[in-house]
Amino acid sequence: MSVDSRNAVSHLKIRVYYEDTDAGGVVYYANYLKYLERARTEWLRNLGIDQTALASTEKRLFVVRNVEIQYRRPARLDDELTIHTQVEHWGRASIRFGQRAMRGDELLCQAVVTVCCVEATSFRPVDLGPTIRTLLK
């Protein structure tokens, strides 16, 4: 995973495996959501945030609140994809990400994903907390 510090875009390389495809050898549409999730998780990890530790020490979890996704072109078996992730906006208890799945320079899929920070036991929204806020600034 790499991050372009000039505009805070992270890049995660993902290989398409047989298990990711449908009978036609095309990536099954729901698997893009898995790729996007991995990229957001690695984005957090790259910032030094371990989600397991965040849940146990600060009692905070991230849950997906909303996804808007557009599929442009199919990815196929053995393709190498790059998932680009960028924070578009953050508020008191949420972060909105812009994400794209690319094969080289070709846009395959783009999404806007909003995650909400919730308290680990009640699942009620809570502020992002000092650790996340400091890293986002």
Automatic annotation (TrEMBL):
Keywords: Hydrolase. Pfam families: 4HBT. It comes from Yanghanlia caeni. This is Tol-pal system-associated acyl-CoA thioesterase. Belongs to the 4-hydroxybenzoyl-CoA thioesterase family. The gene is ybgC. InterPro entries: 4-hydroxybenzoyl-CoA_TE (IPR050563), HotDog_dom_sf (IPR029069), Thioestr_dom (IPR006683), Tol-Pal_acyl-CoA_thioesterase (IPR014166), YbgC/YbaW (IPR006684). Residues 24-109 form the Thioesterase domain. NCBIfam families: thio_ybgC (TIGR02799), YbgC/FadM family acyl-CoA thioesterase (TIGR00051).
